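Data availability excerpt. The first of two example chains:
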Amino acid sequence: MRETFDITGMTCAACSARVQKAAGEVPGVACANVNLLKNSMELDYDGSPETAAAVVEAIERSGYGAERRSRAGEKGAAAKEERPGAAAERAIREKRDQLVVSAVFSVPLFYVAMGPMFGWPQPPFLAGEANLMAQGLTQLLLCAPILFVNRHYFITGFKTLAHRAPNMDSLIALGSAASAAWSVAQLYRMAWAVGSGDAVTLHAAAHNLYFDSAGMILTLITLGKFFEARAKGRTTDAIAALMDLAPKTAVVVRDGAEVEVPTEDVRVGERVIVRAGASIPVDGVVLEGAAAVDESAITGESVPRELGPGDHVTGATVSTRGWIAVEARAVGDDTTLAGIIRLVDEATSSKAPIERMADKIAGVFVPVVIVIAAVTFVAWLALAGDVATALTHAISILVISCPCALGLATPTAIMVGTGRGAANGILIKSAESLETACRVDAIVLDKTGTVTAGEPRVTDVRLVEGVSERDLVRAAAALERKSEHPLAGAICAYADERCPGADGGARVERFEQVPGGGLSALVDGTPVLAGNARLMAARGVALGELASAAEALADDGKTPLFFSANGRALGMIAVADPVKPTSAAAIARLRAMGARTVLLTGDQERTAAAVARQVGVDEVIAGVLPAQKEAKVRELQEAGHVVAMVGDGINDAPALARSDVGVAIGAGTDVAISSADVVLMRSDPADVATAMELSRATMRNIKQNLFWALFYNAICIPVAAGALSPWGVTLNPMIGAAAMGFSSVFVVSNALRLRTWKPGERVTPAAPAVVEIESVSVDVVESAERKEPTMTKTLNVTGMMCQHCVAHVKKALEGVEGVSSVDVSLEAGTATVEAADSVADEALVAAVVDAGYEAAVA
């Protein structure tokens, strides 16, 4: 089982490495991941209380503290649960208080110690050679409060040193303590010189005081830690913002009255009232009312969604308009928001593979630095014969070395990166998947529900000349309402939208489903057929130009259905699962990023090929079973590809689990989501490319941080050791302390740059596709015999912006009596009309103007 432990006393990467090692060596522990940034540990172990106690004991023996936190989802747990930023806020307050006290005494200490060197005026009782002893005592008195207020560096540093697990505090403690101890020794030497009247020794000892170094080292380190704490606190903003989304109270109906209660008191099944401007406190289903709900906090989608009875709602979304009553289906830790917070928290607690290198270096970093400082001290003592010079170089090495930067390089970037993902509707379950996503070079996409909408819709309508759309829709809807076929639902939905009530009152008798053909029935006593070309041929219905139109639609992946009445064709309705508006642009982005795209589907080859042409994938594989999807992913992996599988159904789960990075569409099944490494809350394929962009940005940031941490230490330690002394370049310990503190600040600040990361260019979904309605001639229909000749006229139309405009202009012109066909071109801005000679140009222009556009006869 997995549990979280809160760890205290960690200050650098060496600490986290030591804690992780101590916990990992306990029998019964499978894995321990320590997060320096969050001061926590994720422990996978056998679940035994004895094992948990042994882990706590092992960590405490290493010089740190450990406390078991409540299990995720544990009901009624009394363990503490606090806002993510609370610990950071406490750390900021503590460091600020230490910094204020340190600065108050450091400024006069530095003035007294360095004033004579710079010629600054001194108080009379400290000025001159006669007051050297007074100067030394004053420096000691000013340094003592600084040492006291920063005593935790000594307590922790020497404690971990005693446990043979030195950390950053050990380096600071050794450097500051050495400076202070040497200065105290020199102070005694000055006292002896005063007593013996040895002016030379007094003067030499006075110039060997390092109280200012001891105090300024601690002050500058604390200054750096203060800025570091402030920066680290901002890395938890994403989780804190998510937690703040949850409303504190809810209005529920109890005993027939509306009562406001704390959100945690809402029970499953209760009726919750949500008014305009209020946040929805639970996940549930709308019972009554209507509202526009802003779901951007959960999905990242900025456009409010219109909801009504039967629609699902998500907790923490905001009602911007309307009133709804919601039945609570999930409350507390079971809500979608709580699940998102858990996922983000778990992701930020996990370790990316790249962090293992930093952990290995951190595990030996501090002992190596101490050895280098000791060797440097001995070497300079031998070369210069001066203890003060040797001590200065050794202390500089101790205080300039920065293991913190190594420990913070990865977790800070991971935390900010996963937070940015959550803010954009992308849930990343682990740091490992975030790192792997940047190396993906093959994307396998399921078709239905991923690339396409997953819901059949009417896309085209072809009318036989002399038949109106309402006539066709009436006959089609009357039959299809009796059918349970998915395509029937699409036709009924189209009928309700375009011609509401067209089939109202129609009497349907002798309804029959023709195997492999379609439907037949008597509609108001008239024989009506609905089905494929085979059914029409078997019943003697001539299709004429409908047959060739059907072939063209079938090549585009659409399913044509023919309708006839009384043995004569009425028209054809094509149904398809339309491609999502953003799919083509998303795949173009993926290909631009160097990834090979594969469309993998169980659908027929003709339909899959049509979808592939529309979206532009590199390869299409159709007619595959779930096991074959998994095999295809494995085949790509064996060919050397890093594979991401994108899917939404139960049949995609094996492939999602097999892939290097499984990406689940948020609207998919729970099985698919649980098998995936990344969940896209928006169900938008464009977010696949966005997730890869985020991964690459995060890994680029991590590599920058690690490079800085390693480069900084590789350069600064030799300089501190005196490598540039032959050229007159040496390093004061106070400068080293300042550099150490701000090295960590640099790493955290660089990670915070990810907060400004934004997805690449997204394509705004186009308006819903306008169903194309055309008239065709059929041999059996005699409407082509006209009493007067026809002619073709072309109008120049201005003001058309989209296919909606095209449909409006076309409908307006078709409404003019005598017009037989209309062809409108958005690109050319023209409308070609075939109409009787008697149709006046003015009538055509007036029809377009009435529709809201400008027109003139060409």
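And the second chain:
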Amino acid sequence: MHFPLKLFSKVLWLAMTMILIIPMASAQPNTISFFVSKQGSDKNEGRTKDKSFASAEYALEQIRKYKSSHPDHLVEMLINDGQYYLSKPLEINFDGITIKAINERKVTFSGANKLNLKWTKSKNNLWTAKVPTGLKFQRLFASGELLNRARYPNYDPKILPFNGYAEDAISPERVKGWRNPKGAIVHALHIGRWGGFHYLVTGKDENGELKLEGGLQNNRPSKMHETYRFVENVFEELDTLNEWYLDQSSSTLYLNFGDQDPNSFVFEAPQLESLISIKGSMEKPVREVHIIGIRFVQTDPTFMKTEEPLLRSDWTIYRQAAVRFEGAENCSVSNSDFIDLGGNAVFLSNYNRGVKVSGNLMERIGGGAINFVGDPQAVRSPSFRYENFVPENEIDSIPGPKTENYTADCEASDNVIRNIGLIEKQVAGVQISMSARISVLHNSIYDVPRAGINVGDGTWGGHQISFNDVFNTVLETSDHGAFNSWGRDRFWHPDRKEMDRIVEAHPNWVKLDAIETTIISNNRFSCDHGWDIDLDDGSSNYEIFNNLCLSGGLKLREGFYRTVYNNIMINNGFHPHVWFKNSHDVFRNNIVMHSHQDIQVNFWGDKVDENYYTSLKDLQADQAKSVDANSSVVDIKFIDVATGKFDLISGNMNFHPLKLNDVGVRNTRLKSFLDSPHIPEIHKEGNVSKGAVFEWKGAKLKSIESLGEQSAAGLPTMEGVLVLELEENSPLAKAGIQKSDVIVGCQSVDIKELKDLQLVLKRDQYMNKLNIEVFRNQERKTMLVNL
């Protein structure tokens, strides 16, 4: 089997790294132990089990003092069973400490306050209790179970998105019934379902409509979605079981608890955003800090702080998490649980090297799971919004990063990540941005609102993404992938014609940021509302092989140097969108089950050939496009769809069997409670019929009918009429309308499909001028068409 040199060097690096950062299983020479126990006392010396400290915070301060005079000694904080409510995050700024549960995962670090409440039942059948003056919280737990803040519509676990949404969530009619909605939160999807927005209600205006601030959680601004929205923290919506509302002005907590007596429950309110922070710097990194076997729970939500843009990615980020690394070398967090968190689970920010996140369970997370995000100041010629660009004569043409202040040579492996993004929707199981050589290996990632694994930009590549099982993805959003990536690097320009000119003039610029090849291999992917593997705008320098795509196929949008081979696309195929001239893309030796779903592709890269079809009709459809001349039809019988195993009944193949028996986590504990992806029935005849084409005055027009067409055009919704072909002397062309524009309006009428346009053209056929609105380069433009 072909074994790329880069892959060999990557495996060698991984082996060396694992040797360096394996956590200490037991005390080594010159290792000093400090003990913490619920039965201990902070007046003890803490050096033996029977003289334990009572709190981890106090123990850390004593360890800090000890290390100041014994910097070369390794130290371990050994913690006995119990739940520890941290009063502040444990900040570690020195080398050589292991924080370890004596009995793994029987030690819990909580970011909540345990509330001492006395409940009484009021006349309206609600329970009330006083909380300490000034106490604020966004989440409330009753004996470990998360309760719902009063909301409309009510929580329903069977509904996505948001477990309930309503078009009238903030309608004037509903708002009229709210006496004082100040402090309420409006959650909504992006108009294109590209993630979510969150707004704080600051009051009502003179018209009785809500005054909102926020909505900074997406780097592609838009209006909130007209349907997918809900509101919470409104007293008048406290109308169903297990809802609560905190009146901060009177420090009164209201609870709808039915006939249950809340006085027999333990109530906890999250207060801390972070529980452990390893804090060094590029100049003075912290080394050999290892966290083993801890349960991290109940951190405070951070969705209103998620506003830092990530280059030209669709994302914004907040650099905080239950466990946060910055300026760390050869550190780890392993065999731990991250459960019921309000924000992110783990965040590696700016400079980090050799940090490993492995063997962890991460579930019921408000934000993302594992984030690797470098410093934008390490990027040459950065831009931070899709529509922004660096002028051609100002682009720094030196390859690679400007500084070393980014995350590199780190690993996320053998983790179960599920039920994340419960609050924020623009999140991923593993997020990589402005980083290099990140290894994402043997993770099981599922039940997520958007991407399982996301690479936000081309800086600086070299990632190894292998043996992951990623499914039930893009459940609440759209136009994305189980694996998703963007490029949009320094050469990027929002105007496609200008970008074509730039890359033709400077072909070497396309690898100035993506300096190392990223490998995606031996994974199993499945996406619900998009593509299994989605390399979007400008994603460059990838090698993709030995993957099983169970649902959405594989998409390559405008980028360079992508080599795709030996993959299986169940009931789907290849989606090339708007390729560059001289992209140097290669698509070969793949098994596809329908014809290529190309959109606006005029140039087919270096090679699209020698693939294997299950349908002659599909092969012939692609050969008519002058590709796949040497591809063939094969008859295969799947022995095990879940691992891509099949028997060849007839035909000749140069296809290497996939080896996916150990895809996903290998950890015995974590494997015991895994879910599995849906395994579809096989449909070998996959040719997709095309919609009707309308010819009008030298133009060929059709409705936007697929997610691919929507994505290629950058449309927020699957609506509009695509300009397929355009004669030079046609009225549309003379007005400035171009091929690949999408007509979204005509004569002040919204155009959602071809019949809408046909009706307007018939109605106004007597007129000699038409106002036509088109969507191009993410903008709406109005053109006057002379007939």
